Amino acid sequence: MAKSEVTNIFKSSCPEDTARLAALFAALVQGGTAVFLEGPIGAGKTFFVRELAAALGARRLPVSASFNLMRSYRGRLKLYHFDLFRAGEADMENIGLDEYLGRADGITLVEWPGEAGRIFAGLEPLKFEFKLAGGDRRVITASGPASAHGLLTALKEAWLKK
Predict the structure, then answer these.
(1) How many domains does the chain have?
(2) Which of 45-59, 106-120, 146-160 has the lowest mean pLDDT?
(3) Is 1 inside any structural domain?
């Protein structure tokens, strides 16, 4: 990890904690933000996206987009949800991810960003890494470039207020 990155660790003991983290993030995030979501199947990535959409005021909530590479949801900000689990390098040229990254009218969340991360190497997204910690517990590591310091610090402070 580069020294200029900011990292915060959030320990979620239950789905409600993960939903709370998503709601806190929704209150702080601004349009143009790109977020890469990483972690194994079942770690809570799509749940986080669904709770984020709800907190942003979306009336239709995300489900696993694995069979649809991208879906969008309207709320305070538009939420562009890409699930690249089944996408390969060749698909990256055709899905239009580059047209959504950095759009001021919304935020872009990318599950399974592997190939996209390599193609858009110059992009400095936030990264949320979800790790299973037994039962419903998760360890969620949020990191980003120095430019995300204010957002990630505010998120951590809000989280600690419980």
Answers:
(1) 1
(2) 106-120
(3) no
